[in-house]
Amino acid sequence: MLRYTLKRLFQGLITVWFIATATFFAMHNVPGDPLANDKAATEEIRANLEAKYGLDKPLVQQYLIYMGNILRGDFGISFTQKNRRVNDIIAEHFPISAILGILAVVFAGLGGVLWGALTALYRNRLPDIIIMFLVILGISVPSFVVAAISQLALVNLNDAVNFSLLPVAGWGTVWHMLVPSLVLGLGTMAYLTRLMRSSMLEIVNSDYIRTAKAKGLPPTRIFANHQMRNAILPVVTVLGPSIAAITTGGFVVELVFAIPGLGRYFVQAVQQLDYTVIMGTTVFYGAFLVFMVIVVDLLYGWIDPRVRLE
Amino acid sequence: MSQPLLKVEDLRVEFDTYGGIVQAVRGVSFDVYAGKTLAIVGESGCGKSVTVQSMMGLIPMPPGRIVSGTALMHDVDIIGRKEIDGRDIRGREIGMIFQDPMTSLNPTMSIGDQIAEPLLVHSGYSKKQAFARAVELLDMTRIPEAEKRARQYPFEFSGGMLQRAMIAMAIACEPKMLIADEPTTALDVTIQAQILDLLNDLRRETGMAIILITHDLGVVARMADEVLVMYAGQVVERGSVDDVFYRSSHPYTLGLRAAMPVNDRSAEHTLTPIDGSPPDLFHPPKGCGYCARCPNAMKICEDSDPEVYAMSETHTSRCWQHHPSATVRVAGLHYREVEA
């Protein structure tokens, strides 16, 4: 088990290195550079700035320097935000994104399993039909539309009761987190619902459920001990990629709800070609996702003894 | 004979399907006695499994439907009931094992826990007691290193071992009856023999009755005390194992025997298959179900359902051949001794 974990972590490290390298060269191949704005007024100033940031060196050398810095855990200084270290930006804003993302994953996971199980129980009856219709909506409508509509709905709701039931935007309290994380998790929840439903329906007719019935177990026990655990396996499998989908989707939701998360900085940095911030956030997100996928894989082994390792 | 443990009478089961109503079981009656093995034999789709599963409440309803019939156990009809005198029927009074042990156990639960489950639910054991008993049961079903094996999962067991584990689970609460629905069909021959021996030994030790569903006449000959031959949802012949094998009184039984390999090396022995296929149970034939495939069918066979003729006290046949006015004798068929 330990060997497997270490092996996976090592593989993850290679993946992150690959992400960093690809991003680095892709970024430098984009026309323009971070100094293209009004800052570099004259040739002289430009040359000085380039020297300061090391942009005058050959690309490969820049790459090696940058990689060395990353290995030491230093992502450098932002080009556009005065005197801000990328490490500080991440340390300050990532926790907010992480809370939002984790809440969204929890919503998506719990909701998906719950709705999926419910639709399977009520197969082809009214609750199933209604939920499955909503699921199709949830899958097909992109999150920025859902975000905007739900924000509008919140405004109207608060207007109607003439009282601020839930904050429309911003960050700070639990109430601020509720709607954005729901919106963020919605698409994934819909997808997981479908998955859960079909795997539940498959298992209802399986031989081992028949065995459980023949043993005379009460329906609640069959449901909890035999059906759920097996039905949840495919859901856990896609949880890793789902986390990726949710974190990347988070950028849009953060923007709509004015949440000071990392996503906003990432989007801004891309627009301004802020090299160090792009690199820092990309590598950090990459590492985070790779890590989450490994965690999910280990979790899978815990649930399903067949993939458990000695 | 003594009082039967289970007395099934006129059981009829239908299924609603897109194609119409399938009459899967059409009036089946039989008795099961404590300590004896009743074999139900017949080809695929003849209603063997549906008969026992409907009794156990294991067929999905809808689309399934029990139209009529009773199954008396201690003078209580168990159809549609969950318990007798506060004792659960499923798992407690009647244990059941299935055809494919590979898929019949929960892949994410340890073998020991699965065997312990009925004890937790029916016998009020604590978790620890139940697991300890599960280890004993595995030992009883001759699984070596039961202690270690109980902590393993189904994927770590072979097919034969899984069937042993299934048996251990089914007999955990010491049921009065064990229903084995084609228990050896998915296993290879040597393992088959071991499982059958195990079932026989357990029956002798515990005095439970066994209903053995199979389409293998070799298994029937080895295991059964009484045999029920089913065809197209009906019992066509019923009797002791000797009655059915040595005094076969239904052309279908004869057909099955002719299609059975025997231990005869000579080249002359050929297997004779039964031509055709079973009737469409959407529209069961008016007369005898076997009529279309029967080499000895008469005019009456097509028009009216045969009566059940008692060949002896224990032996019945559902065939017009035994009607007093049937005069042409079929070779190999056993007839009643009719007084002149």
Could you characterize what this model shows?
- The complex is a heterodimer of chains A (310) and B (340).
- Chain A is an all-alpha fold and 310 residues long.
- Chain A has a domain at 91-272: MetI-like fold (Orthogonal Bundle), CATH 1.10.3720.
- Chain A has eleven helices and no strands.
- The longest helix of chain A is centred in the C-terminal third of the chain and has 38 residues, at 219-256.
- The termini of chain A are close together.
- Chain B has two domains: 6-231, Rossmann fold, CATH 3.40.50.300; 234-263 and 271-322, no CATH class.
- Chain B has eleven helices and 14 strands.
- In chain B, strand 11 and strand 12 form a beta hairpin.
- The A-B interface holds A 206-208, 210-218, 221, 225-226, 229-230, 233, 303-306 and B 56-58, 82, 88-92, 95-96, 98, 100, 103-110, 117-118, 121-122, 153, 155, 166, 169-170.
CATH class label of the largest domain in chain B: Alpha Beta
List the uncertain runs of chain A: none
CATH topology heading of the domain at 91-272 in chain A:
MetI-like fold
Question: How far apart are the first and last residues' alpha carbons of chain B, in Å?
Answer: 29 Å
Order of strands in the sheet with most strands of chain B: 8-9-10-3-11-12-14-13
Mean pLDDT of chain B: 85
Helix content of chain A: over 70%
CATH superfamily of the domain at 91-272 in chain A: MetI-like
Pick out the low-confidence regions of chain B. none
CATH topology of the largest domain in chain B: the name is Rossmann fold
Query: Any idea what the CATH superfamily of the largest domain in chain B is called?
Result: P-loop containing nucleotide triphosphate hydrolases
Could you give a short account of the major beta sheet of chain B?
8 strands, mixed
Which two chains form the greatest contact, residue counts included? Answer: A-B, 22 and 30 residues
Cα radius of gyration of chain B in angstroms: 21 Å
**How many helix segments of chain A?**
11
Tell me the total number of β-strands of chain B: 14
Major β-sheet profile of chain A: none
Multimerization state: heterodimer
| Shape type of chain B | globular
